[in-house]
Design a protein that fits this description.
Structural class of chain B: alpha/beta
Structural class of chain A: mainly alpha
Strand order of the largest sheet of chain B: 1-3-2-6-8-7-12-13-11-9-10
Oligomer: heterodimer
Largest interface: A-B, 57 and 73 residues
Number of helices of chain A: 3
Strand content of chain A: under 5%
Radius of gyration of chain B: 21 Å
Order of helices and strands of chain B: HHEHEHEEEHEHEEHEHEHHHHEHHEEH
Helix content of chain A: 25-40%
Strand content of chain B: 15-25%
Helix content of chain B: 25-40%
Order of helices and strands of chain A: HHHEE
Distance between the termini of chain A: 33 Å
Largest sheet of chain B: 11 strands, mixed
Number of strands of chain B: 13
Shape of chain B: globular
Number of helices of chain B: 15
Chain lengths: 102, 482
């Protein structure tokens, strides 16, 4: 079972979550998550040997719809919600270069 | 809008017959909202003008001899995580504070087609994460029975809007009890159908294997009437089930012959507040009095539901909420010189999401992360199957399972500081979603607490797709406990 959460763990999870946490938030978040995980630890006592995981309540099979073209939403309509737009495109900061980003 | 409740089917019948106008009904509700909404805060937005226009269209159809539909002139409030063309869809989050949907959710299309009128968008815990609406970025919804107390959550605004008589019915979403718990705390009916019954297309996703849309109403029959309009397979939601549905509103008053009511001993927990324990006993006595067979059933994994849920729901949430990146829609942070795209994501998300949403994203990311996936996520999915099998065995012996909806009545605003103690309030509702079965909360009386008269709810659950039995049984309890 997992060891107690450290501040480094919280920073790592925050990075994976794409959430910037300030240093002062790390401690309180660690203690809240530790308390929740402490409760969740009761799952470890349940015998689950051989039980098939259940990801979904329905036994459904992949359903294929007829391949019929339908109208799509107008781009202008969708761009109305975008925080920054240039012409008909979403504007974003520079993605490549300077060794940052991707 | 006071006095004894008149069935919605009769009201809509009057609208369809031209005996009353949809417009006059909207005006009456708007007047009620003007009076009490400032102290309740059920709504994020009241759509007065749009509602008037929709009502006028219904009345015009009636005048022209057309039938506007089964919900003609029914005034309905919509939880603000269900998208519609009118107004904004905010999820009570700063992240979506200015989001306007370019399309209608399937449930909105269906209600529109049935002649319903939309009065506004109701408050919720941010992204439906919480049990009190205290996690809303736009302020808490107060309980109409005592405005110092919470309305429950996450669909607290939808529950309060019905309880305060701001509308005939409302829609909520239920991922772990978010319809049934606020219904219990506000004293109305709240119904979560079987997973797959109602399309989630246009419901902002939280826990996709758990989420389900359902109605709040003044009675079981009214809830059934709204539900009848919502049901059905939707090409836009591949998880909708292709299962036959017969309209239930006309049937719910027929009692179930030889109803078998399951009583799990685990539901008589010492953690239940005295008022909740008393309401449960009253409901059991009522069942005996109307001739139901009382059956002892066992649900020993009841207490493990919270742990299972708080692995699965945050895991799914962390994935679903990855879409809020500040690029295509939603809040975008301002970057300082030198900050890159990565910072744009993490700053936008840190500024846009409130503390509970961040907590669940972090928790979900953790349980899905390399090294912990098997210990948490996979194990929770295994326990999930055991919980479902436990229900399957119980439903071999009974038609419905009766229990409390919430272990406590409405609690004071600000009274629940620790996230974990809030989570524990969901003990009787999360397993319904984990198993994918339907559940309904109805009022079972009132408790005097701190000078207030607080509603107490009971919950009925049935096996998947057995809504007819569930709602007919609920109507039997409703009548017996009135």
């Amino acid at each position: 079972m997992a060891d107690a959460l450290t501040d480094a763990d919280i920073k790592k999870i925050a990075k994976l979550s794409r959430l910037s946490l300030s240093d002062s938030q790390v401690g309180p978040v660690r203690s809240q998550l530790s308390s929740i995980l402490g409760h969740i630890a009761q799952l470890q006592a349940v015998p689950v040997e051989g039980v098939e995981p259940m990801a979904h309540p329905l036994r459904i099979v992949n359903r294929l719809d007829n391949d019929e073209p339908k109208a799509t939403m107008p781009v202008e309509e969708l761009l109305k919600n975008a925080p920054a737009v240039e012409d008909r495109f979403l504007a974003v900061p520079k993605v490549l270069g300077d060794g940052g980003g991707a | 809008m006071s006095g004894a409740h008149r069935p919605l089917v009769e009201i809509c019948g009057d609208v369809r017959a031209g005996k009353v106008t949809a417009r006059s009904r909207v005006e009456a509700y708007l007047a009620e909202i003007a009076k009490r909404e400032p102290e309740i805060h059920a709504f994020n937005e009241v759509h007065a003008d749009a509602a008037r226009a929709q009502a006028d269209a219904v009345d015009a159809a009636v005048k022209a001899g057309r039938d506007p539909g089964a919900l003609a002139g029914a005034v309905i409030a919509i939880k603000d995580n269900i998208v519609m063309r009118e107004g904004k869809t905010t999820c009570s989050s700063k992240m979506l504070a200015n989001y306007r949907s370019p399309f209608d959710a399937t449930v909105i299309e269906k209600l529109r087609a049935a002649g319903a009128v939309f009065i506004g968008k109701t408050n919720l815990d941010e992204f439906a994460m919480g049990s009190s609406t205290e996690n809303s970025a736009f302020g808490v919804t107060k309980n109409p029975h005592d405005t110092t107390r919470v309305s429950g959550g996450s669909s607290g605004g939808s529950a309060a809007a019905v309880a305060a008589r701001f509308c005939d019915a409302s829609l909520g979403s239920d991922t772990g009890g978010s319809i049934r718990q606020p219904a219990a705390l506000c004293g109305c009916v709240g119904f979560k159908p079987t997973y797959g019954r109602v399309s989630r297309y246009g419901l902002v996703a939280f826990g996709s294997s758990l989420d389900q849309i359902g109605p709040f109403a003044h009675s079981v029959e009214d809830a059934a009437l709204v539900y009848d309009s919502l049901v059905g397979r939707d090409p836009s939601d591949s998880t909708t089930a292709d299962v036959a549905h017969e309209p239930l509103a006309a049937k719910v008053r027929e009692p179930v012959a030889r109803l078998r009511v399951g009583i799990p001993r685990e539901y008589k927990s010492p953690a239940n507040a005295p008022a909740v324990a008393a309401a449960y006993e009253r409901a059991i006595a009522a069942a005996k009095a109307f001739g139901a067979e009382i059956v002892d059933v066992e649900l020993p994994l009841t207490d493990l539901g919270i742990s299972t849920y708080y692995v699965i729901a945050p895991a799914e949430a962390s994935s679903n909420l990855a879409r809020y990146d500040g690029i295509r829609y939603g809040h975008r942070a301002k970057l300082a010189p030198g900050e890159d795209l990565e910072m744009l994501y993490s700053k936008s998300r840190a500024e846009g999401f409130g503390p509970e949403v961040q907590r669940r994203i972090l928790l979900g990311t953790y349980v899905l992360s390399s090294g912990y996936y098997d210990a948490y996520y996979k194990r929770a999915l295994q326990v999930r199957r055991l919980i479902k099998e436990e229900f399957d065995r119980a439903f071999e012996k009974c038609d419905v399972i009766l229990g409390p909806t919430s272990p406590i009545p409405a609690f004071p605003i600000g009274g629940m500081k620790d996230p974990l103690s809030m989570y524990l309030c969901d003990v009787y509702t999360v397993n319904t979603n984990i198993a994918g079965i339907p559940g309904i909360s109805i009022n079972a009386g009132f408790a005097d607490e701190g000078g207030a008269r607080l509603p107490v709810g009971i919950q009925l659950q049935s096996k998947a797709f057995a809504e007819e039995t569930l709602l007919r049984a609920a109507a039997m309890f409703e009548k017996a406990l009135a």
